[in-house]
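[job 4471] stage=fold_predict status=RUNNING
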Amino acid sequence: MADRGPSRTILLTIDALRADHLSQYGYERNTMPALDRLADKATRYESAFANGTNTGVSLPSLLSSQYHGRDPCINGQTVATVLSNAGVRTAGFHSNTLFANAVGVPDGFDDFQDFGVRENESNDKYTSLSRQIYLKSANKIKPLVERLGVKSFAKRVKNSLLPDSALHSMSYYVNGEKLTDAVVDWLQKHSDESFFLWVHYLDPHRPYGIDLDDPVYGEQVNLSEIQNLMSKAGIHPSSVTDAERKRMIDLYDSDLRYTSQAIARLFDKLEELNIWNDTSLICTSDHGEEFGEHENYFHRNVPYDEILHVPLFVKAPSYTKDVVADPRELLDIAPTICEVMNIEEQIFHGSPLSCANDRQVIATGSFAESGPVVAGRWDEWKYIFTATHEELYNLRDDPSEQQNLVDEHPEVVSRYRNLIPDYLFKKSQNSPEQTDNEAVEERLRGLGYLE
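[job 4471] inference complete, writing structure tokens
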């Protein structure tokens, strides 16, 4: 039998990316033209859903193909574990502090770069000089500021010393340009090997406005406006005006276009290395984003579809250009990766995306609730359970989930309660992991996980 050569798979996850904000899914703006290159060769899934409402829940579930994925990610049950044990080189790149704080370094990755987001300061190699100077200066004067109680004065001094762009740049994560730089460096060293590479872009995440001076959509923005918008939408969402909501959408869409430029450069490198055609590529998001559909912003609410509905593209030898309307879920990603790399696995809950069996999509987690939150989505219904209330929606008649029918259809509620695994009703996955690291806490706050 002829040698098949190296087997390569890249998993791209884009934080907080709504499917309905992509032109490939019918959006009026061409927010991510780089994905056209992928869509031209890929199977696109119209009804793909995350299994968690935020990164700390969703990414562990994606990597482990388990509903509560944190412990499996730590204890050696990830797709990277399976592939590494089979002799495939595995690598991961991300800078999401919530995920890093919950999981650390997930099991199975031979090479892993989180750019220091679990530490006191991000890796200086990926932090602008102005940001480094500000952080080190702020740390030195912080005890005096706290003792004298002059925080408002200190804030004015900070704003006068450094421009908005310097403070916004690399404040909370590594931007797409620097992330792509690191990934390209890795690819140049390992392109002739069999590998699995996971890359997580964080740029669409709050705080919006990665390009302060020249957003693609809308007018120029400054840091003060962004801070005010993020704070208002996070703390007083009902007071957000229509104009402010539109402004946030413009900034969010502009961030998608920025991310697209970084992804295009990654695709260009695959072409340059002559491995584009032979590399399987899966692109999706960990969750969507809210813009007031259920009186909240970002991704804090219970599992409504604006948070769960994500894009999903698969370019692989056995996945021809096609559009699949039937539901799929992110639990299916790990077994799909093993399928396209011809590696057997028996530890995953999901099924390969090529399998047409009916999915009973289950999602957990919510920053809006203190107790367990779980949702089931199948057979044209959406059932949501929290410790304080239940919700039920007929998605055929009410796709925007506005009319709660829980009292009218107790038989449907009972059916969902019986089919959803009992342990999901008992364990909360809502709050970020506690930390006494002030730098980590600052990044969590900046990303909206602490208000």
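[job 4471] summary: The first helix runs from residue 34 to 39.
[job 4471] exit 0
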